[in-house]
Amino acid sequence: MNWSLAFEPLISWPLLGLVLAPLLLLALVGLWFRQRGAVFRLAGLLALGAALLNPVFLDEEREALKSVVAVVVDRSQSQDIGERTKQTDEALAGLQQRLGRFKQFDVRVVEAGKSGAAEERTETRLFGALESAFRDVPPSRIGGAIMITDGEVHDALAGTPNFNAPLHALITGNDQEKDRRIRFENAPRFGLVGKPLEMTYRVIGTNNEAGSVDVRVSVNGEQVSVERATIGQAMPLQVTIPGAGRNIVELAIDPEPDELTDTNNRAIALIDGIRENLRVLLVSGEPHAGERTWRNLLKSDASVDLVHFTILRPPEKQDGTPINELSLIAFPTRELFVEKIKDFDLIIFDRYQHRDVLPILYYDYIAEYVEKGGALLIAAGPEYAGESSIARTPLMSALPAMPTGEVVDKAFYPRLTELGQRHPVTRGLDGSATEPPHWSRWFRTIGVENPEGEAVMKGADNRPLLLLDRKGEGRVGMFLSDQGWLWARGFEGGGPHVQLYRRIAHWLMKEPELEEERLTADGRGMMLEIRRQTMSDDPGPAQIITPSGKAMTVKLERAEPGVFLGSIETSEIGLYQVGNGDLKALAHVGPVNAPEFTDVVSTENRLKAPAEATGGSVRRLAQSSALGNLTGGVTLPSVVPVRSTGAAAGNDWIGLRTTDDSVLKAVSRVPLFGGFLGLGLLLLALGSMWYREGR
Question: Most exposed: 70, 82, 271, 371, by fewest CB within 10 Å?
Answer without folding.
Answer: 371
